[in-house]
């Protein structure tokens, strides 16, 4: 990722932080709409899950410029996901739901450049998590 793309992801994520609760609601609603088969992998009550996801995204986004320092943590996260029953194929709908959520949350600020930067970020994280 280029330094400019990292700036775009970090500055756009700052705009999502104040609406993190709404963004997490939108994300899971969308995910379960496009990939209903993943719903049973999650607990009935998603409250804690929503907080953890936003916290992890926030850590990843703030450390994009030194991705190598969080690589071991991201690999561990990927291994734990296998234990949750998550397969490599599940990463696509999750990425789609994430981009859709950012589009809803950021509106006009979700420019084609911001979309491309987020796509690269998610692809990089998912790649490390699945060991690709
Ligand atoms: C970049 C991609 C992803 C990130 C950053 C992420 C982040 C997290 C985090 C931080 C947790 C909390 C538990 C832990 O730390 O082990 C978690 C749990 C979980 N994630 Fe992900 N995740 C990602 C992709 C996915 C995908 C593709 C799926 C597939 C549906 C998924 C399904 C789950 C499930 C089922 C749990 C466990 C819920 C529970 O039993 O409490 N995640 N995820």
Characterise this structure.
The protein has one domain (3-130): Globin-like, CATH 1.10.490. 73% of the residues lie in helices and 0% in strands. The chain has helices at 3-16, 20-34, 47-62, 67-83, 91-106, 112-130. α4 (67-83) packs across α6. Bound molecules: protoporphyrin IX containing FE. Residues 38, 41-43, 49, 52-53, 56-57, 77, 80-81, 84, 86, 90-91, 94, 122, 125-126, 129 line the site of protoporphyrin IX containing FE (HEM).
Chemical compounds bound to the protein: protoporphyrin IX containing FE
Q: Roughly how many Å apart are the termini? A: 17 Å
The number of distinct helices, counting runs of at least 4 residues, comes to 6
Helix content, binned percent: over 70%
List the helices and strands and how they pair.
Blueprint: H1 3-16, H2 20-34, H3 47-62, H4 67-83, H5 91-106, H6 112-130
The structure holds protoporphyrin IX containing FE (HEM).
Describe the structure concisely:
This protein has 132 residues and is mainly alpha-helical. It contains six helices and no strands. The chain has a single domain, classed as Globin-like (Orthogonal Bundle).
Entry keywords:
132 residues; mainly alpha; Globin-like; 6 helices; 73% helix; globular; binds protoporphyrin IX containing FE
């Amino acid at each position: 990722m280029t330094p400019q793309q990292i700036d775009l992801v970090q500055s756009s994520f700052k705009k999502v932080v104040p609406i993190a609760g709404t963004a997490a609601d939108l994300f899971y609603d969308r995910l379960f709409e496009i990939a209903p088969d993943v719903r049973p992998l999650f607990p009935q009550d998603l409250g804690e899950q929503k907080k953890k996801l936003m916290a992890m995204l926030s850590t990843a986004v703030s450390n994009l410029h030194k991705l190598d320092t969080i690589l071991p943590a991201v690999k561990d996260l990927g291994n734990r996901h296998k234990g949750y029953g998550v397969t490599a194929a599940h990463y696509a709908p999750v990425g789609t739901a994430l981009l859709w959520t950012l589009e809803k949350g950021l509106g006009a600020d979700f420019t084609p450049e911001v979309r491309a930067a987020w796509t690269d970020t998610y692809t990089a994280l998912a790649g490390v998590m699945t060991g690709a």
